[in-house]
Each structure stands twice: as structure tokens, then as C-alpha cells.
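Researcher: Watch the backbone:
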Amino acid sequence: MFGACLARLLRDEDGGVAIDWVALAGAMIGLAVLVVLHVAEGAKDVSAGVGAELGNSHISDITFLLHPSEQAVATGGDQGGAQGP
């Protein structure tokens, strides 16, 4: 009984394409998982560096993001007012 079923399975060609697609989809999922793991590790390293840099900085260190007139106010310098003659 088992031998007859096995012989019929080996002779039958229906479903071969489905098996190919399952194997291809499995390979693609495996590759995607590997890529995500690799990218996640790099992202952790970068985020740790950014976190350490932000943790060590002070507001006065990052005034370069401000407009020049706002930099003076943030650092306690000139208030940016107009000067008369």
C-alpha cells in the first residue's frame, strides 16, 4: 500500500511549481531576516554613539543649529538689538 502511494507520488508531476514557489518564498524570507538582523546591529551601534554624544553635550554646545541672532541670546551674549550712532 505505502509503496504504491510512493510510486504514484513520484510519477505525478502536479504541484511541482507550488513546491518551487514555497522554496523560493522560504529563501526570500530567510534572506530578509538576515538583512534585518545585520541592519539592526549597525543601527544599534549608531544610536549608541548618538546617545553618548547627546548625553555628553550641553545646550551651549549645540547653538550652531540656531540663527545667528538667537545664538547670542542662547550663549548670554549680545541681545541682537540695533546700535545707534
Summary: The mean pLDDT is 77. The helical segments are 2-11, 16-55, 68-74. The radius of gyration is 33 Å. Residues 39-77 form one domain.
